[in-house]
Amino acid sequence: QMGLKGWQLINSGVNLSAIDYMLETMYLACCLLFIVYKNLQGTIPIDVSTLLCNKNSENNNNAISTFFVHTISRKRSSGFSETIRQLSNSSVSSNDPSEDFFKRLAGILDGDGNFDIQNLNGKRVLKAIRIKLHNRDLRILTYIQNQLHFGRINAVRNKPYSLYIVSTYAEMRYLIIKLNGLMRLKIKGFKESCDYVNIQFKEADYQIPANDPYFAGLVDTDGSITFNYSGNRIECGLEFKLNEYSKKLCLDYVIPGAKPYILERTHKSGGVEKHSILFKFQNVQNMIPIYDYFMINRLYSDMKFYRVSKIKPFIEIRKYKTTPKGSPEHRVYARFLLDWIQYQNPQWTKVAWVSKILDKDIVQEFNDK
């Protein structure tokens, strides 16, 4: 019923391939409905792949999707329910997180993760894989959960912390397979976890390659972005318990153009002597490489990412540190640093260098905020 207007469109040279495509689609739908009907009747389904492939007009050179063709052909041997199962599996696998995600996750677990191995009836059993973070960094946990589509997040009662927990055997085994060859610090627990799920442990390369997301996972959880007042620079640092694994860690190449200063030190905590290893990117020349790395591998800790994002603006005004206190330039410098240290940091007033840059007007300005 195209009528006069339809004939006018034809005479004016309009391409009617859209109508042809619509008819082909209707034909395809009829074929699929017929196959479903035959399946329900218990009869052998026909192979309509040749019909679908041949039903392609000269006006439309886009062939019907071979996805449907192969699905229908495969039905002859597997059955309709099996076809649906295969489609479901392919959909899940296509939505798996990327390799970069698991590199980052390995860093997060090496920073604040835990493989909960317990004795049960004389056997070592993996009860759960956990990540514990301050509620300020809850976004890291939700990011992991959204990527994996499993696990749960629980608040720690009466504490400002939350836990991401994976505790089913299938999900833990999936994670261990994906993380095998990527973990570098929590090796004792990870090796036992590999044994529990019957997987051979693979050792990671301890020389972290350029722009590897593993380092971002470490900094997100166990690292720091700090301001060195005497050096007038923004720094990135990591500190770990000194052991055979942390000692092998090589971060010389992960941030192109920057190498960390490494220090092994001994200190007392609660009357107990502890040994640690410190990696610190602390040169003024390191600031731009740090910024560039974290623009490629974004931090999910909002506070740390905010501090990194301010590196380039800081470079523009860091020269104002030596201007007279109370001058317009020094006030720009002071306001910048106070904003930088205040963001999501309720303990900012306890930072030693804060008192060195304050004057009465700026104190009043920040008190009014």
Automatic annotation (TrEMBL):
The keyword Lipid biosynthesis does not apply. InterPro entries: Homing_endonucl, LAGLIDADG_dom. Gene3D superfamilies: Homing endonucleases. Keywords: Endonuclease, Hydrolase, Mitochondrion, Nuclease. Pfam families: LAGLIDADG_1 (PF00961). Residues 105-184 form the Homing endonuclease LAGLIDADG domain. One of its GO terms (molecular function) is endonuclease activity. It comes from the Eukaryota. PANTHER family: INTRON-ENCODED DNA ENDONUCLEASE AI2A-RELATED. This is Putative LAGLIDADG 1 endonuclease. It comes from Magnusiomyces magnusii.
